[in-house]
Amino acid sequence: MSDVTRSTAAELGRRLAAREVSAVEVAQAHLDRIAAVDERVHAFLHVDTEGALKAARSVDEARVRGEELGPLAGVPVAVKDVMTTRGVPTTAGSKILEGWRPPYDATLVSRMRDAGLVMLGKTNMDEFAMGSSTEYSAYGPTFNPWDLARIPGGSGGGSAASVAAYEAPLAIGTDTGGSIRQPGAVTGTVGAKPTYGGTSRYGLIAFSSSLDTPGPCARAVEDAALLHAVIAGHDSRDSTSIPAPVPDVVGAARLGATGDLTGVKLGLVREFSGDGAEAGVGAAFREGVEALVKLGAEVVEVSCPHFDYALPAYYLIAPSECTSNLARFDGVRYGLRVGDDGSKSLEEVMSLTREAGFGPEVKRRIILGTYALSSGYYDAYYGQAQKVRTLISRDFATAFEQVDVLVSPTTPFVAFPFGSRTSDPYQMYLADLFTIPANLYGGPAISVPCGLSEGLPVGFQIMAPTMADDRMYRVGAALESAVPPLTPPPL
Amino acid sequence: MAAISREEVAHLARLSRLAVTEAELDRFAGQLDVILQAVTRVGEVAAADIPPTSHSVPLINILRKDVVVPGLKRDEALAGAPDTADGRFRVPRILDEEA
After folding, report:
1. What's the confidence (pLDDT) of residue A1?
2. N or C: which end of chain B has fewer CB within 10 A?
3. Which residues, other chains included, contact A476 with Cβ-Cβ below 8 Å and sequence gap of 6+?
4. Domain A4-257+476-482 part of CATH 3.90.1300.10
5. Which DSSP string do the residues of A431-460 spell out, in sequence order?
């Protein structure tokens, strides 16, 4: 039997359906892989061995009974620790939630269970999804399987690394400013941010509610599309969930894999062509564009003049929303409580709890958000950022009148060494330069590996109009078919 | 000129219910100053007559059907609390002893 941990999710699903391999065997092979390598990678904060084997057994039993099962039944998945999982520890990478076992499942967790996916465990992340390296996780960083001295991206570095290290064929991430796509780019994996509102936020521990979007991580574009199809769709428990059919993302990925992009127009954003990206990243990206042109795509230069202001607008909007969302961590209903010795007031206990429970980046953003929302500053900061957000959305709308998708490098630089961007927090924020515009606009965007720079993976970003998620999968699968596959060195 | 002073950071931390240390205040004041100088650039955009976007999905008044669905049981809701008493969340005192 070939090593099932090297298989794509689509192929695993077919072999499971053909009963060449059982779900228990597949789960056990991945649990063994985690046991063998995760001490070095640290992709997981919690491995749910018992739960995974139990779920796998129930899929095998359903198959024996002849029940009709979905294409991913029995396929393992790793879940970012920001999604609630009933009875399974959920920390969001923070000490303030250490030991918490949620009393309910996130919608997408229940949807995956209903589809027969087998959850292996919860993956590491920057605390409350704030960061681009996992260095802000309260439980220590995840290590990039390509080079263990380098960051795996963030905030969803654990999910991306678990997939890159063959610990899981699929993972769930969340993308607020690039937290699925940038880790995908620097680990040589695929990461897709669906249209905002296309995937439910119910059970996602909120950071920035108008931006947070759950989505799939995988080693292949079709696999990401298969997982996307399972988790997407309207959820009445999320008031911002879009009540419309999910685009045929799986069909689009299969169409793209045929390698024909005749008539597809790619937009190159003029404002991204400056000195933002490292030379090696720019070169790999241009090779990706040339590969797509050979498949029949046309390239058109477009102008999105307000993209230059996306990063500043984001770092006002996201901290403002985070200030409000993180107010719920008050030491009353769940998580940590510090200093409650009978002599202190509620306010003192709250302040001591939050001081002890939150790490430095979370504190910086709470303070920044409180500032941006203060009376006297509101109009100049948060209010102005919301107006800039409108202009960025208009830039997208104008661009999509001329082209089908926009393309860019996913992140300006390859995986950087640990510690190189933590002393100046703004240097860390620059990792999100190319990913943030799509979050502010709300449209879908995917990162697909397109080559190497200095021996490290480079991601190619494809952005599409709102609810046209199928387009990014088509172009992404075409790119994947046209560039050599990337395989990390053995661990 | 600094965009934000150490005193302002201390005030904002208090508003945010963060009992930050003196060392953190020193560090955060400098770091927040760098961040604020960078994000202040949004002010360069002429946007006086542009409507703000709070949200990218134009949905309004989305209401669910008014039907009873099972919710969390009391014990489940209390299970993660740091302290409970008599089937409720227990909190430290809110008013001063003298009050």
Report:
1. 46
2. N
3. A190, A192, A221, A224, A253, A256, A446, A448, A462
4. yes
5. GGTTTHHHHHH---EEEEEEEEETTEEEEE
Predicted complex ipTM: 0.94
User: Within an 8 Å CB–CB cutoff, is residue B76 touching chain A?
Assistant: yes
The ranges assigned to domains in chain A are 4-257+476-482
* Least CB–CB distance from B12: residue in A239, A371, A440: A371
Q: Which of A133, A137, A159, A179 is an active site residue?
A: A179
Alpha carbons A419 and A422: distance in angstroms, whole number: 6
Catalytic-role residue among A7, A94, A132, A155: A155
d(CA A53, CA A26): 10
Average pLDDT for runs of 10 along chain A of length 491: 88 97 98 98 98 98 97 98 98 98 97 98 98 98 98 98 98 98 98 98 98 98 98 95 96 98 97 87 97 98 97 97 97 96 94 98 97 92 97 98 98 96 90 97 98 97 98 98 95 92
Tell me phi and psi for residue A302, to 5 degrees: -125, 160
A181: left (phi over 0), alpha (psi -120 to 50) or beta: alpha
CA distance B57 to A241: 9
**0.90 cut: is pTM over it?**
yes
Q: Residue length, chain B?
A: 99
Residue-level pLDDT at A2: 64
Smallest CA-to-CA distance from A108 within A199, A46, A47 is with A199
